[in-house]
Amino acid sequence: MQKSNYDPEFEFQKPHFDSINKVFSTMLGRMHIRGPVSPERMTDYHLAEGLCCFRPYSLQHKSLIELAGEPDGLVFVAAVANTVVSYVAFHKPDYPWWRKRCFPQLLELGSIETDPSWRDTAVTQTLLESIFLNEIFGFFEDFIVIAVQAVDGWDFKNTGFSPWDYRQMLINLFSKYGFTTWETDDPEVREHPCNLLIARLGRNTEINSIKHFANCCLGTE
Fold first, then answer.
1. Would 64 be classed as within a structural domain?
2. pLDDT tens-place string over residues 162-190
3. Measured CA angle at 216 (ends 212, 217), to 5 deg
4. Residue 201: which H helix or E strand, with range?
5. Taking a C-beta distance cutoff of 8 angstroms, is the pair 144, 107 a contact?
6. Which ranges constitute the DSSP H helices of the chain?
């Protein structure tokens, strides 16, 4: 298990590719959950056309292939046959506030997306459960994982939610997997009242890391 206290000498080590490898039956077919996937496997997959919240799905596919090959990039997918219908991606923090305050035990959940036609099948929940509530795969228990949730990346068109409803939906969803909301002076979070910072403290996270993170949230580190 990786050392989890706040330590500048801590070295990030990716888990083995396909550390998670499960098959589930759904009403729309057999779903394969894998991750972190290699760039080669990600290349072999197709992305469902509905995975376009951040950019056109073809460009998003290219971005995920590149991320899967990065030293700190982790991509987990739910796929039916050869088509990815949902994914979760992690990397070192990319937002300016957090790039300046990044420390070895900090990771960012950078993007999460599910094809609209699959949202009623609980595929998002199944994928998150496989990542965070997995008794065998405990990689993220050594890290603090943040997610900056901003209105400009939310799918109001397909959900019909208001910004406040969408915000609450995200809080309810992520709370099932250990995420809580955190106050922060990050200007990108404070840009809109519905934006929020959520974070998951891995169960192996030591108090020094938590204190350091709390100070980073408020810009005192």
1. yes
2. 999 999 999 999 999 999 999 999 999 99
3. 120
4. strand 196-201
5. yes
6. 39-44, 57-68, 96-100, 123-132, 156-159, 163-175, 207-217
User: Residue 211 corresponds to which amino acid?
Assistant: K
Distance, CA of 127 to CA of 173 (rounded, Å):
12
> In the numeric block, which tokens belong to residue 86?
């949902």
Q: Residue 171: phi, psi to the nearest 5?
A: -60, -45
**Domain range holding 34?**
20-217
Number of domains in the chain: 1
* pLDDT at residue 3, as a whole number: 40
Answer whether residue 14 is part of any domain: no
Q: How far apart are CA 92 and CA 3, in angstroms?
A: 17
Query: Does residue 9 register a pLDDT over 80?
Result: no
Does residue 15 lie within any of the structural domains? no
Is residue 123, in this structure, part of any structural domain at all?
yes
Give the CATH number of the domain where residue 201 resides.
3.40.630.30
CA nearest neighbour of 165 among 144, 186, 151: 151
The arithmetic mean of pLDDT across residues 125-151, rounded, is 96
Q: What pTM value is reported for the model?
A: 0.92
